[in-house]
Amino acid sequence: MGVNLQKGQKVDLTKGNAKLSTLMVGLGWDEAEGPAGKGLFGKIFKWNIDCDASVLVLTDGKLESDSDLVYFANKKHKSGAIVHQGDNLTGGSDGDDEQIKVDLDKLPANCDKLVFVVNIFMAKTKKQHFGMVNNAFIRIVNDQTGEELCKYNLSENYDNMTAMIFGEVYRHENEWKFSAIGEATKDPGLRELAAGYS
User: The pTM is what?
Assistant: First the structure.
């Protein structure tokens, strides 16, 4: 088992993993139960929420172009170093709902940070927010060995928040580290969230 992180905590991914070269970043969530009496025959139902995991590839702390945004409609970074494994429209499955694979050795030398974010697709139109999501987490796995290096479970109340900066993988003195962010925003979509880095 990896390290269970708290908000704001950092962990060195390469310490003790000198040959670490490929990561799998898994993001997961469950739909919260809706109010009783609203479903068929008064049964409790679950909200159908489409969360989208994405990664912003930053150079000197900035998102330089749209091609540095990897998400369900742009699954592979131009360097070939980052590949989104596919869109999950509902969440609620066991384990990771969406996965992003990162080859650290292929990342451009001027790339200093990867920011992993999640937003609710069409949140404003559907009147949905992260208060309607349970058990959200991000975890980092050594993709070569399958070993989970760290995991961060979001446990705060995120009512009325529609997007989330989950965490950052960043380069520091030739080592790769992970920082658990857990910062929620009211951005209506990925473009608006990404604009804060441009």
Answer: 0.87
